Amino acid sequence: ILPAESPVRINLKADGSVKLGPNVARVSPEATSAGYVGASLGTIKLIKGATTSKVSYEIVDPNQVKNNHVYNITFQDTLILGGAGKADTLKTKNYSLIDSTSGTTLINKSTHLESTYEQPIIDGFRLLFENEKRVQLDETNSRWNDPNVPKYIVEKFVAPGTPPGEERPNDYKVYFGNVGTDTSVAYKIGTTTYPPKPVNFRVFNITTQKYLKFGFLELDTTFGGQGKLSARGAYKDRIVFLEPNSNDSLVTTWWFYLSAQPDTALGQTIPQPGDTAYIYLRKPFLSNDVFSFTSSSPKVDKSMAKTDLDKIKVVPNPYLGSARWEVKNPYTSGRGPRSLHFTHLPAKCTIRIFTVDGELVNTIEHSSAIDNGTEDWNMLTKDNLAISYGVYIFHVEAPGIGEKIGKFAVIK
């Protein structure tokens, strides 16, 4: 996409050189050194919390990535009140990126977690976020162990005359057995009190690894009988989850019920002893979530470099009079400079070029950054004379790594 206010200027001069405007950069694709291992942030791990949102990254400038630095990503959340007749929403407020190794806050409370937002480049990398919109049921992974039980519904508790429930970002299991498996607690909605009673289920919080207290709104006592979760027509029993707050007082969070009366003609039934409802929630980044990762800068792996010696080659091979990357002839007569490339070389090595008779043509000492494994040879002998056409042998010697012998041809 051409920029609207930044003109792109590229001018080819008479001598074959190229003049670039201020908004143009020149890049040359080259192979990296033998044994090159690129920069990485490893796996970004969730070390605290239970979010289902994802953090990934892209390396933009590998040479800026620091080695063995530990980074943490933290978040803050906020409760957005829905107003009359609307549910409240627990959402991510911001995130921070901290270099724990140096104790530096690199990004402080940024509110941009949109997947379309271009995050700033920090230490050579850019973070990428996939944030859930709100806490809600994960319908893909939530399920019954028995397909003959009707689908269940998990919603934030909302009832007239009673404070709405909290969107607790937890996962749960509801285990079913015989009546007496657990006992509900007294629960009041408006002016109606539902007394405690023995029931055929218990509720387990997977996230906290604790069983919950709950209220049981038994509206149907004919289909399943007393103390059993069931549904008949519009009368659907409901389990109200009660969980402790920061003051250790019980507050209402979610409620759970069957979506419809079981269709016995289809073999459906209410939950039986041994049945389990697995409840998994989608969760945005919240205040109790912490991600961590460790960076590694580019390096050379010597054992890999030994294997990569087999990749060393000469290009073009054969050399047919010229190479595409050679500059335009700057002279009034004759031909311009030649250029033959040795690629996939170790960062430090010695290249010796011989005729097939064993006569040394030239010796090249290669030393480069580890991200550049290419050596450009002007095809001149050690006496600064142009080589003749024919077949040549090359020998690459890399101390501590190994040797490679190959051949190439120069054709008129």
Could you walk me through the main structural features you see in this protein, from its secondary elements to its overall organization?
There is one protein chain. The protein is built from one helix and 36 strands. The chain is mostly beta strands and 412 residues long. Strands 4-27-6-7-8 form a five-stranded antiparallel sheet, with no helix packed on it. The radius of gyration is 35 Å and the shape is elongated. The chain starts with 9 loop residues before the first strand and ends with a strand.
Chain-wise SSE layout:
Elements (H helix, E strand, L loop, with lengths): L9 E3 L5 E3 L15 E2 L7 E4 L5 E6 L10 E11 L8 E11 L4 E7 L14 E6 L5 E2 L5 E2 L7 E5 L15 E5 L5 E2 L3 E3 L2 E3 L3 E2 L1 E5 L4 E2 L1 E5 L13 E2 L2 E2 L1 E7 L5 E9 L17 E4 L1 E2 L7 E5 L4 E2 L1 H7 L4 E3 L3 E2 L19 E4 L4 E8 L4 E8 L7 E3 L12 E9 L3 E10 L1
Parallel strand pairs: 30-36
Antiparallel strand pairs: 1-2, 3-28, 4-27, 5-9, 6-7, 6-27, 7-8, 10-26, 11-25, 12-24, 13-18, 13-25, 14-17, 15-16, 18-19, 20-23, 21-22, 23-24, 29-31, 31-34, 32-33, 32-35, 35-36
Strand content: 35-45%
- What spatial form do the alpha-carbon principal axes imply? elongated
| DSSP, total strands | 36
Percent in helix: under 10%
* Neighbour order of strands in the largest sheet: 4-27-6-7-8
Q: Give start-end ranges of low-pLDDT stretches.
A: none
Briefly say what this structure is.
With 412 residues, the chain is an all-beta fold. It has 1 helix and 36 strands. It is elongated and about 105 Å long.
